[in-house]
Design brief:
The structure is a homodimer.
Chain A (H helix, E strand, L loop, with lengths): L9 H15 L11 H8 L3 H13 L3 E4 L3 E4 L4 H8 L2 E2 L9 E11 L2 H7 L6 E11 L2 E11 L16 H9 L3 E12 L2 H7 L6 E11 L4 E9 L5 E6 L1
Antiparallel strand pairs in A: 1-2, 3-10, 4-5, 5-6, 6-9, 7-8, 8-9
Helix pairs in contact in A: 1-3, 2-3
The structure holds a DNA duplex.
Chain lengths: 239, 239
DNA sequence: GAGTGGTCTAGACCACGCA
DNA sequence: GCGTGGTCTAGACCACTCT
């Protein structure tokens, strides 16, 4: 099967079909997919081919398989989403769970930098979430989050927002965050940081610039975090 | 086959056998392994089982497969090793290649912190590499690297050291770095940093603390880097 | 016991690299 | 044209979960 347009393996086609169905919400987060046998019959391929695809999607964190039970759409639950994308920890490696501090949600026109980052055009509107996150009850991170308003209708009325936004995106807006690019730098705390985080102005803090991408490959969230670095570190494993 | 000791799938056993052979240096970096058929015959399993293992080891960056040619031990080449573990970039994402600045290599007794980090015991010796790395000809990063001397005999005589140490570890000492845990924080530049990196004392810089682990699962390198953050960022993709 | 995913096998055929 | 990995199939049996 070597077409002019190039050859596309069966398992790739099956992969795309299943991803498309997840995007369309055919199965909801936490729900089970049909069994391998059923999918194979339905798609007219062998069970082995379906298995290869389901295994790959599991490796991509999109599905979860449980022997004896079935294959499920992975959920961005509290702990899972947190440990996957929230990288702040104590020096030495102990992972931390932030709690919610005060926050403000606004809707406004996108600025030039935001248009560029999120592939928006003039006149598009964005949601701005400005919030503080606490660790052990003490302010630790200030986050400024920008979302394309078109994809998140009514989000400004959902106050108070949950601690794990990605779970909200997934269940309420059918947007699965699958990867995020982060850029870190060190900056001096401003007077504003002093008020927000309780560190003296001029103290070095971490600036984390994140662009989160959805399963549909859309740039869905731009998040700039300012994190205290006195007793916190950004922890990541390179493989 | 449900033993008391627990059941160990065939493909796991095959996985371990092949990893062991790589550790022992049965095949050198860049060399080809026997074909799937040959391995299957040799190990007394089916080709499908061998394939499953080789695919997994490829995903772990230990092997490389090339259709029509064979399966090869992955090499820590200049560009590969650099892009895998060197995360400094320009804001916006452009990856950078550092060049070698001045460096000093010493051998001395391990300090308490080093013993703890590298699982050493009293009296063990370490190699200390202290070097500057340049970006666009300008000092950008100062690295302090600690290795257990026992694993790197004669490394102090190899001056000048190559830019990519992991390639040296792999080819000369049969030590494959497969993962690294990094912890980042923001600190103020010291007078020493001012001299090394050309930033004013007090300027925020990135402090990167890395523990690198080998295929044998040994803690093999402790590296503390101090990086200018004025026109450089630490870039990472979370998935 | 029925149904699910997990392991393992055997074999056919395709795509690629090279001599 | 041969040898390599890449795709795809069909089927057997095992391990786990639930009823």
């Amino acid at each position: 099967m070597s077409d002019i347009a190039g050859y596309r393996p069966l398992y790739r086609q099956v992969h795309d079909i299943i991803v498309r169905k997840v995007v369309q919400g055919v199965w909801k987060p936490g729900e089970a997919l049909p069994s391998e046998q059923a999918l194979a019959r339905e798609l007219g391929v062998s069970q082995g081919t379906v298995r290869k695809v389901l295994d790959a999607l599991t490796a991509e964190n999109l599905l979860e398989r449980r022997q004896g039970k079935g294959t499920f759409i992975a959920e961005h639950t509290q702990e899972r989403a947190l440990f996957r994308f929230f990288r702040m920890a104590r020096p030495g490696g102990e992972r931390l769970t932030p709690t919610r501090g005060k926050g403000v949600v606004k809707i406004r026109a996108a600025r030039a930098a935001e248009q560029a980052k999120l592939d928006l055009t003039r006149g598009d509107r964005v949601v701005e979430i400005d919030r503080i996150r606490l660790i052990d009850g003490r302010p630790a991170i200030r986050e400024l989050i920008i979302l394309p308003a078109a994809h998140f209708p009514g989000i400004e009325k959902r106050s108070p927002l949950p601690n794990t936004l990605y779970s909200l995106y997934q269940t309420e807006y059918r947007i699965n965050i699958v990867s995020a690019q982060e850029e870190l730098s060190a900056v001096a705390a401003t007077a504003r940081d002093e008020a927000d985080l309780g560190v003296a102005a001029g103290t070095p803090i971490l600036l984390i610039d994140r662009l989160a991408v959805s399963l549909q490959d859309l740039k869905v969230e731009w998040r700039v975090s300012r994190a205290r670095s006195d007793d916190l570190v950004y922890a990541v494993t390179l493989t």
